[in-house]
Amino acid sequence: MRAFLALIVLLAGLSPAFAQAQTSDVSPRFALTDHTGRAVTQADFAGRFLLLTFGYTACPDVCPTGLQTMAATLDALGPEAGKVRAAFITVDPQRDTPAQLSGYVALFHKDLIGLTGDEPAIADVAKQMRVKYAKVVVRPEDPDAYAMDHTASFFLIGPDGRLLDRLPHRLPPEKLAEKIVQRIRGGA
Predict the structure, then answer these.
(1) Nearest to 58 by CA among 96, 115, 5
(2) Residues 68, 104: contact at Cβ < 8 Å?
(3) Exposure letters 39-49 (e unless 16+ CB within 10 A, then b)
(4) CA 160 to chain centre
(5) Close Cβ partners of 113 (under 8 Å, ≥ 6 residues apart)
(6) What pLDDT sits at residue 186?
(7) End-to-end CA distance of the chain
(8) Angle of CA points 154, 45, 95, to nearest 5°
(9) C-beta neighbour count of 62 within 10 angstroms
(10) What count of other Cβ atoms lies within 10 Å of the Cβ of residue 107?
(11) Most buried by CB count within 10 Å: which residue of 72, 104, 109, 130?
């Protein structure tokens, strides 16, 4: 029960008002590895919008649902899709290697990027984005039996690397695409 309550608190994340008020001062910096094994930094996304979420490949429901939403959003963007990259940063680098991420992100969309790194690199980018996550042991006798509680949000980063929006995970793809298109066209 304690793990369930912790999950609810973490998934709730920060209040929308707090998130909106704090976006303009965040320009995440990171050095991670993508699902092909290539080193990636925030500079690799410069000049494009970046739709970002955090999660892990063994997630039973929240992450697959979020990645389906991201995939449908990319498709819903139509001609604007070329201006947007979409990435999934794991909060479970112990299990989510580039090879693991490669097979996983391919299940959702051909243009989805999986990102991993060592624990300090993941912790650093999560802290910058105000993402919380924690390992929850499911069976103490089995060190591999754990889940990861984590914040569930979408983040839209502008072409200049500045965080523009923190959006609820429950947004339908058409609404998410609409918000992205508004930003692409210079609206708030």
Answers:
(1) 96
(2) no
(3) ebebebbeeeb
(4) 18
(5) 34, 35, 40, 85, 86, 87, 88, 105
(6) 87
(7) 40
(8) 60
(9) 18
(10) 12
(11) 104
The CA distance from 100 to 17, in Å, is: 36
Beta bridge partners of 73: none
> Chunked in runs of 10, what are the mean pLDDT values of the chain (188 residues)?
39 40 71 97 95 95 95 95 96 96 96 97 96 91 88 95 94 96 86
Share of the chain above pLDDT 90, in %: 77
The token pair at 97 is: 């290697």
User: The tokens of 78 are what?
Assistant: 């139509």
Which residues sit opposite 148 in a β-bridge?
A: 135
* Identity of residue 179: K
The CA distance from 64 to 123, in Å, is 22
Nearest to 116 by CA among 131, 106, 102, 130: 102
Residues 6+ positions from 139 with CB-CB distance below 8 Å? 145
Tokens of 31: 């050095």
CA 34, CA 115: separation in Å to the nearest integer? 4
Which positions ≥6 away from 48 have C-beta within 8 Å? 83, 84, 85, 159
3-state SS assignment for residue 102: helix
